[in-house]
Design brief:
The structure is a homohexamer. Chain A is α+β, with helices and mostly antiparallel strands. The first copy, chain A, has a single domain, classed as 2-Layer Sandwich (Ribosomal Protein S5, domain 2), CATH 3.30.230.70. The first copy, chain A, has helices spanning about 90-105, 110, 130-145, 180-185, 215-240; strands spanning about 20, 30-35, 40-45, 65-70, 115-125, 165-170, 175-180, 190-195, 200-210. In chain A, helix 1 (about 90-105) crosses helix 3 (about 130-145). The model of chain A has no long low-confidence stretch (mean pLDDT about 95).
Chain lengths: ~250, ~250, ~250, ~250, ~250, ~250
């Protein structure tokens, strides 16, 4: 069925080459992650305080929080992307997705009253930056949590219940395919981002018809590709974390 | 299976009472829409000019554009919600969803070089405001387009290919259910917003595990409820538009 | 003397039809008020805390405060009015007028340390929005205060000393007239907004020559019309509040 | 009747000592004006272009415009006033008043397509800054217009029809009085700012009950004081402008 | 060597006429300072509280702070300079320089937990505004400190160790010269601002090649001029402060 | 004389290990530069248009421009640095320094009407970020200019007259030293940043006494260290650019 030929010769159910480098800088978690020409730096910083909104009305928080920020560096795109005063609509949407995805596997009580910031800065953009950042942020987050393991409220309860990984899928010229690069993404009729846990359960599904709509059969094909892709990233995360793997 | 008893006695696959009032004010499209205690005013205004970004580099646009803005009025919530003149993260996400949903059925060429603004102001909030606004904005949009029908580029091509309607679904205490009110929404383990065309095709699926994840079976149950709900709203849109119905 | 013929056939000392609907939404005070084609939603919300500026330097406030916000919804005007990042000069001026007008009859001690927000959102604009909002906000304020009557510091002292109502007057083509619609307002040589108490005393007089000046005689004629108009609105306020009337 | 004794021994119908110094800096109009301890620098700058809003849709303006900006320097008050680069509500209201007051006597056609900016910076504040700025800005404006007289569209038509001057009046401890200093202003039950033309016609009347209301008799007393005060300032303006007086 | 003839006939090592007027307004320190046609008002205000950043984490400050703000009034330049929402890059740089320069001679402990604001507003600009403001702010600061002398922590320790003065120097058409006016500054190949203590030690050196570079010999010539100029200003500061001189 | 022992055992006139990696991402110029633990990504992007301010009043520019932006990523410091989308005072000062330094060697006519953006994002901060960014941006700039060499106005005129490099120097515990790390910088009595051309001429000298002042002898010692340091960096720049070296 998939009649579309990908520019880089990939099969429709194949991701680009994904690389994950831990410890890129000295932050508690610091991960340089790439999928083909898309490259992001994901750092995880620990602030030993719950966020202000947890402390209103004299409340003394016992739970923690994870929040994310996402930006594209100006030099990350072919045409320089002007730096923005504050996150634009797209960046706002993406950083909310990243934070929500990681909080879905968080045991907030086990983290204790602290805030972990996931800063995802895209160094080079070629499609799929948001899902790549979810996957990279998860590795940075695990490194950061491991770095404070001694000071967690309960040494026997790890503050994450599972890892998460994410991929983009889409329909291009009628063919469902996995891990779209920028050119494919621009041409896609349907665009979907899927976040899943290491055990393969859904955390987030965001599917959008771009000036198109889609039916049940197409949805099923996309979800199947997404499951394959998130599983592949999850395996790589586990591999690069090796004996730091907490689950 | 659904063991959860809804506060208002509704069945799990039942929406609240939905009312749509056209011509609430004098704007080309002006719709007061409510589902239970959630009430929104959706107006559609026509600006006879394409957006600036279409005109860069001396480009003379022939196509049109639809854009949306979403806000909650300060008095719309029990605790007064401080006025946010500039959309916060949530409002940004929602207004992007509304605009994207309606553009999915737009024939931009047939609209001609003009911009239609969909302003969705929530007057009273009790859950499901974003999907209610998609549904109300669609009716306002049709009224607005009908008001300029004489000046469209091609009288034989209507600028929309179909209507769109939207509902929220979610899993509360393990039970999938349709059109969540605020109390249900706050307790939901999974929250999903679905936008569909009048013909029943998907335009947008946004499913999120709220500190939870979900599996294929749960996803299927939610999508089935969403199909039922969007079809019900679509029928009501058709009914209130009556002989103004363009399709 | 008045040679000017009004478009809608009104006499110079006649207001448009004024309607006041209480309980439009669930906020403690929620009033839909209209004068002809000008329509505004005025809600009153109670926050059980004095404003921050009363609490500086460890001060524990015993008095309350009333503040107002005013906006025009984008769809309220023929040409869509772009939503603004923050109130523009005109909106700032108007919301300060609304707050000041209601505070003029406030017994701050009798309200206790709480803040009442008067949110005035113009749904449709055809002249006289600011004075209509003062009149509508007064009704919403009374409903809101009545809703917290049991928790006032002193059950025997009502926190308002009187009601307030407001009208616009102006000189168009040399003729003084009452309650100007947009077309009249645009053509007015002198424009005046007057706020008065239920007992008929002045609270605020703002008269402006629009590229014109005016003399004592013209001022007298305008004030006479304003007294007539504010009395008429005051009577209507009393009527719609009926047994909720506190004075 | 006036039982109140003024701190500085002034009669109730007496202004403080008013000084006007032209040419304080090199701007086309540059006036240092003071009334007692209130001191402001009013400069008038000419920009040889109509404002942008006059040029929309390819319009070629033939008329001019006057606009004003008002700020208090941080060191102008006893307690340092934090710098507000963007005007707060009060400054917005005041600068709109200043601009409107001078535009009331403007012959926009006779000015030609240019913009005159009136920048009013309060160097020391002791009550009555807004009316002092109107009076000072008028002198700066005349100096600025005189400096471009050779390039006006029509040498025989002066772009102002008259001068304007302004004073504050108010009721303190029941007594109407003229030109309130800060201490009097803070205690005033009614506060009124009046702008008049050199010929004595009203341009603007802004009267406000500060937690009080007022009746016709009090209004009449205030207006009488205001007429006396504006006439006195008008005479001084004429005196300092001497042979530069255009009317 | 200096072949360049200055427009105003000055020698290359000569400043313009410098005037310092203390007590221009009622602020604790209020200095009108001018060098030729450059005129600035420098006020010093005392806030009896350390800045917020000193009080974080429950810290109780014993030391004080000096901070500066710098703006050019809109009428200070030939072409009106639009007022800005917040300090632009240049103003930010300058106000940081002013604050840093005065803090270099501050004994923070001896000042006690208070903040002195130095507000430097340029009334007329003809080159050298930033260095003139440093010199003027120093005089205002001494007046302000003298006004609170009775309430300093230790009456025997003056909170400043020395005065500071500043001048601009530059190379124009190959000639090093002192105190550049605007026309010279615009043409300068090298531009340098030097701040020195009353005893002649350097506090700050900021030298910049404007599309040019410079060598050791040129640097030496500029520094020699700067020493001469700062000494001259320091002498004048001492003279105008006379018996208020604290050192 | 230098009694201070550096933590990392360096001699006082020794820089940390400096590494320059070209082509880190696909931008026309993309340089990862580090000095010890300070790491920055400097990209150079070419926009084929002169900046807007060159085009005012219908001007058709023939010259080009270089501008710079500087930020520290949130994860670059031990304590996470809250993201500042809009540059704070320090970042403003630094990005102005970077742009000015490179423009000092620019032949604007030879660049033609285009703008080169130098984006300097600090990935890890351990002192000396601003000077490292100047040095890295110079390499990125040369790579970017080489990438458009074919389309320069005149193939025989290279748009840069020389390279630039920069180092920080300072006085710590009385000892002048080169290339301060964060701990040394925090303790420095005098802090100086020096930018020089490849030929060794000064482009910028910014020396600041941090709560201290300094004399001629100290200045001379600092300048000598700076000359040594900038020459060392210049040699490295030449080496990494090798046959891409344009001078």
């Amino acid at each position: 069925m998939p009649s579309y030929r990908r520019r880089d010769g990939r099969a429709c159910d194949q991701t680009r080459e994904i690389k994950i480098q831990r410890g890129f800088t000295n932050a508690p978690g610091s991960v340089l992650i790439s999928s083909g020409d898309t490259v992001a730096l994901c750092t995880a910083s620990v602030v030993d305080d719950a966020p202000d909104w947890m402390k209103r009305d004299g409340n003394v928080p016992t739970r923690g929080w994870i929040t994310a920020e996402y930006r594209m560096l100006p030099g990350s795109t072919k045409q320089r992307k002007p730096r923005q005063d504050r996150p634009d609509g797209r960046a706002t949407e993406i950083q909310r997705l990243i934070g929500r995805s990681l909080r879905a596997v968080l045991d907030a009580e086990a983290l204790g009253p602290r805030t972990i910031y996931l800063d995802c800065d895209v160094l080079q953009a070629d499609g799929g930056t948001r899902t790549l950042c979810v996957s990279g942020a998860c590795v940075a987050l695990i490194d950061a949590i491991n770095s404070i393991r001694a000071s967690l409220p309960n040494p026997d309860v790890y503050p994450l219940r599972d890892s998460v990984s994410a991929v983009s899928v889409g329909i291009v010229e009628g063919s469902p395919m996995l891990d779209l690069c920028y050119v494919e993404d621009s041409a896609a009729e349907v665009d979907m981002n899927v976040v899943a846990t290491g055990k393969g359960r859904f955390v987030e599904i965001q599917g959008t018809g771009e000036e198109h709509s889609f039916d049940d059969e197409q949805l099923a094909a996309l979800l199947a590709l997404a499951k394959k892709g998130t599983a592949r990233v999850a395996a790589l995360q586990r591999e690069v974390l090796a004996d730091a793997w907490p689950f």
